[in-house]
Amino acid sequence: MRHLWIIPIAALSACADVRPVEESADDLEAIAGAIPEPSVVPADSADTAAADANGLTPDGAAEEGMEWSFARDSVGPKLAYGAPDSDNVKLMLRCTGGESLRVSFTRPEGAEGGELLLRSGGEERRVDAIAEASQPGGVIIEATVPMSARPLQNFRTGSTLDVLWQGEVISVPAAVEEARQLFAACRASR
What we know:
This protein is of the alpha+beta class. Helices cover 25% and strands 39% of the residues. Strand 4 and strand 5 (89-95) form a beta hairpin. The longest helix is centred in the last third of the chain and has 13 residues, at 176-188.
């Protein structure tokens, strides 16, 4: 069973004003006793909490103000989940011109690539992700995934999609019609 350690915010905020001082053993015990024990939450519960914070309501519906948008631009077909008519995009799926999709999202400057895990409909696929400079203060994390990967196929047929990266879960709702448009456009652009 996987577990996720959750450290209460109070414990983290207590660390914000740390100064080196000499403490007695009694002082250290009192300090240690004041910090609550971390909670162990089964991964499924943590995933639900993360989904709430990353694009989904508990029932898997899109969060308010966010939606899927299919478009074609000079680079090719793409499907974005975010706020309409804005740069607030949580997740982008773009055709690569072959048999793959490029999965991407932005993070603050200094973020690095690494392993990315896609999960949908009970299937998982691990791929390597890279970080590319995008704009002042941010980077694009992206990975190329075969369109035949089971999580992408499950997403195409109506399952929600989770992207796990460096302990973070980006969850997006199903987008059956838009996903079918993207897959058809990718196949046609080969």
